[in-house]
């Protein structure tokens, strides 16, 4: 099954945009009611489908990693009002759209493999959704908003009830300026007793939601916040030190984990490479350095790609990290733009870092 799914998807992948476009057209034809779950502009939604599909295909032979991801996805989809019939329609649309662009590799055996794989995925998502007793989303009000730059804001949101996330996890968010455009953002602090959430949001190209939040968000806005997702975490009992690699606002999950670790006097040694193109991209460097000053187990290494400055590494994050070798006996957490994550992980694998020691999340950008 794994081989057939991967080989056929490799044939269709060069036409990924068309696969996604056909998928949604077919889905809305089969189940018109599902159109109401999505925004009018489907451009970003199509790219998110592709990222999800690629991620699942990459992990299809790693059930210990794939199944938790699918269960999180199933719980998250409760906010759309998804029911069993919708999963059936999605399966039909998915197989027909991949089939259309996987010819001549598509055979009866390939179709059975895709049907089996999708059945496993859908069952995991449905079982997780049906077993969840918590709310489908939480309402939260924007109580603070600080615009640090033209394209960057720190937003603090007070939920009606505490969101049960773990440090390093991300949540889906819907803002009033962009209804039905759910996007993923990561809390930048560990859970607090008062439930307050802090988000670091930078506008990105094509980022309808990020631009709305940074440019037009207001105190008093009510957000809807979906269930927490993600695998970034530190196991204090593993006996291994930690390497964190973060680009731009990708530092948010690392900051939340460090905030959580700071409640203990002893921790694994943590090295954080925090990078950006220019000094302005390292917007949270002073706060991180202050945390390092009071926590001897933490080391912060700033990295600049387009500038040379004293006491800072120069080059991409991939360049800077791999200068130090393979980071043997470290657990590695990576967060940032998809391009940054891809290049960093690829370079680390070439440098000799073990794949099963590297953790990153697939949905961390707008």
* Computed CA radius of gyration, to the nearest angstrom: 21 Å
Low-confidence stretches: none
* Spatial strand sequence of the major β-sheet: 4-3-6-1-2-5
Could you report the average pLDDT, rounded to the nearest whole number?
A: 91
Pattern of helices and strands: HHHHHHEEEEEHEEHEHEEHEHE
> What is the total number of structural domains?
3
Helix content: 40-55%
Range of strand content: 15-25%
Give a brief description.
The chain has 366 residues and is α/β, with parallel strands linked by helices. 41% of the residues lie in helices and 19% in strands.
How does this model look, in words?
The structure is a single chain. The protein contains 11 helices and 12 strands. Helix content is 41%, strand content 19%. The chain is globular. It starts with a helix and ends in a 6-residue tail after the last strand. Helix 5 packs antiparallel against helix 6. The protein has 366 residues and is of the alpha/beta class. It folds into 3 domains: 130 residues, Globins (Globin-like), CATH 1.10.490.10; 88 residues, Elongation Factor Tu (Ef-tu), domain 3 (Beta Barrel), CATH 2.40.30.10; 120 residues, Nucleotide-binding domain of ferredoxin-NADP reductase (FNR) module (Rossmann fold). A 6-stranded antiparallel β-sheet has the order 4-3-6-1-2-5.
How would you summarize the topology of this molecule?
Elements: H1 2-12, H2 16-30, H3 43-59, H4 63-76, H5 84-102, H6 108-131, E1 138-149, E2 152-159, E3 171-174, E4 183-185, E5 197-202, H7 208-216, E6 222-225, E7 241-247, H8 251-261, E8 270-276, H9 285-294, E9 298-304, E10 313-314, H10 317-322, E11 330-335, H11 338-351, E12 358-360
Parallel strand pairs: 7-8, 7-11, 8-9, 9-10, 11-12
Antiparallel strand pairs: 1-2, 1-6, 2-5, 3-4, 3-6
Helix pairs in contact: 1-5, 1-6, 2-3, 2-5, 4-6, 5-6
């Amino acid at each position: 099954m794994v081989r057939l799914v991967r080989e056929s998807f490799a044939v269709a992948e060069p036409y990924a945009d068309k696969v996604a476009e056909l998928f949604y057209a077919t889905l809305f034809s089969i189940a018109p009611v599902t159109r109401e779950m999505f925004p009018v502009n489907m451009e970003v939604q199509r790219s998110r489908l592709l990222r999800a599909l690629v991620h699942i295909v990459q992990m299809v032979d790693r059930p210990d990693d794939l199944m938790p991801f699918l269960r999180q996805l199933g719980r998250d989809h409760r906010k759309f009002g998804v029911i069993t019939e919708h999963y059936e329609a999605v399966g039909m649309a998915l197989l027909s759209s991949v089939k259309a662009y996987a010819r001549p590799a598509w055979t009866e055996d390939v179709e059975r493999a895709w049907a089996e794989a999708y059945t496993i995925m859908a069952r995991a998502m449905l079982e997780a959704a049906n077993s969840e007793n918590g709310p489908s989303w939480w309402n939260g009000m924007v109580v603070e908003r600080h615009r640090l730059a033209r394209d960057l804001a720190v937003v603090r949101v007070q939920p009606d009830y505490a969101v049960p996330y773990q440090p390093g996890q991300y949540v889906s968010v819907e803002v009033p300026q962009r209804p039905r455009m759910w996007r993923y953002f990561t809390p930048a602090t560990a859970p607090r007793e008062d439930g307050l959430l802090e988000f670091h949001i930078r506008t990105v190209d094509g980022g309808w939601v990020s631009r709305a939040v940074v440019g037009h968000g207001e105190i008093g806005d009510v957000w809807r916040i979906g269930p927490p997702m993600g695998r970034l975490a530190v196991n204090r009992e593993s006996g291994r030190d930690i390497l964190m690699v973060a680009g731009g606002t990708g530092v948010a999950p690392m900051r939340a984990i460090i905030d959580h670790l700071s409640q203990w006097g002893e921790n694994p040694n943590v090295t954080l490479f925090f990078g950006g193109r220019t000094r302005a991209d390292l917007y949270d460097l002073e706060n991180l350095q202050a945390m390092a000053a009071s926590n001897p187990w933490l080391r912060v290494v700033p990295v600049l790609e387009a500038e040379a400055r004293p006491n800072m590494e120069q080059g991409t994050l991939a360049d800077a990290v791999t200068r130090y070798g393979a980071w043997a006996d470290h657990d590695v957490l990576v967060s940032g733009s998809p391009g940054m994550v891809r290049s960093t992980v690829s370079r680390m694998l070439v440098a000799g870092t073990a794949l099963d020691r590297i953790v990153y999340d697939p949905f961390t950008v707008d």
